[in-house]
Amino acid sequence: MQHHTSESSTINFNNLLDRLLSINDPQNANLKSLINKLWPKIMQENKPTIIMATGGSKVPATFLKQILESRGVIAEVIEPRDYFYKSNISAFQRLMVISSSGKTNGIEFSLSTFPGEKILITSNREGTYKWASAEYLKNLEKSFVALTPSLAPILAFIAIALYNPEQDLDELLLTLKEKVKYLLNKAQNIIEAIILPDFSNIEIISGYDTATAHTILESNLVESGTCSVVIHDKGSFCHGRSNLVYQNHNFLIHLAHNYNYFDNLLLATLQANYPQILSFHTQSVSENSLLKDLYLSFQMYYLSQKLAAAKGIDLTCPDYNPDVVVKLYTYKGEM
Fold first, then answer.
1. Strand, coil or helix: what is 276?
2. Reading across the β-sheet that carries 229-233, which strands appear in turn?
3. Which among 83, 82, 65 is positioned nearest to 74, based on CA atoms?
């Protein structure tokens, strides 16, 4: 059966730009408050930080981790269940939780028991760091696989990283709105032009610098039931993991920002043996590293939709087994 409150990919992707622009707007008081409150915490303080997220929220969590680490802050992304078993929780001074609803199993327990600073980033839950705009709440995304709830925090984190408290925040948000328009449209055009090969399973060659992108693709394809996905680190791929492709002739996706010698070597070696390879990059955009990461992320959302459609699956409104999905999704007990 299909999720009764979800809307089709056509509706959700057609509305994606307007939803993102309504959030990343000077009129969005929630976002401006979030930026002003989080800016010193992310850009000035140096507290070892746990970032808790699951599902689509792991996308902005991964993005935030890299921002913090670029500043020399120790940061780690964990699932809610990890909190119950991780033995060095006390070594961290801050817990940042990213969850659109803020109600995922394990989150409330973690927030109530963590001994250090606690921050909950949600769409619109009272008493939290909220990103949702009034316009977005009128046209709320209804999706089994999150689009806007995953991308909105990323836009907030980009604004925080680029913001200087001495500058005009409204001007920055207006500039970012234009960047979002340009990069989303460019990503959509790139994916529309691709001819997909036949595939059963997909393997991704990626790495630390493209972790946000491969997190998107893996999460979307698995949650929608499109196919199984294996992620290879580029270095580890050279140590025997390439044999999986050789033995199974899977569809291979390569991710990069700029093609260095190693990327070119990988592609030249593999293309001679595996014709089903698609490579995605950000070399065609002259933006800073954060916006390049956003552009690659946009490509992965549109690619997810296209791959799902090739299997007859609606990415944001897929069929699912209610006996399994509902029972497990609503579980609130011991983890």
1. coil
2. 229-233, 202-206, 251-255, 277-280
3. 65
pLDDT per residue over 110-144, tens digit each? 999 999 999 999 998 888 899 999 999 999 999 99
Between the alpha carbon of residue 302 and those of residues 142, 184, 192, 265, 315, the distances in Å are 17, 9, 8, 27, 10
DSSP 132-198: --HHHHHT----SS-SHHHHHHHHHHHHHHH--TTS-HHHHHHHHHHHHHHHHHHHHHHHHTPPPPP
Structure tokens at 171: 């001007």
> How much is the pTM?
0.94
CATH code at 198-310? 3.40.50.10490
Residue 280: what are its φ and ψ, rounded to 5°?
Answer: -120, 140
**What ranges do the domains of the chain cover?**
9-191, 198-310
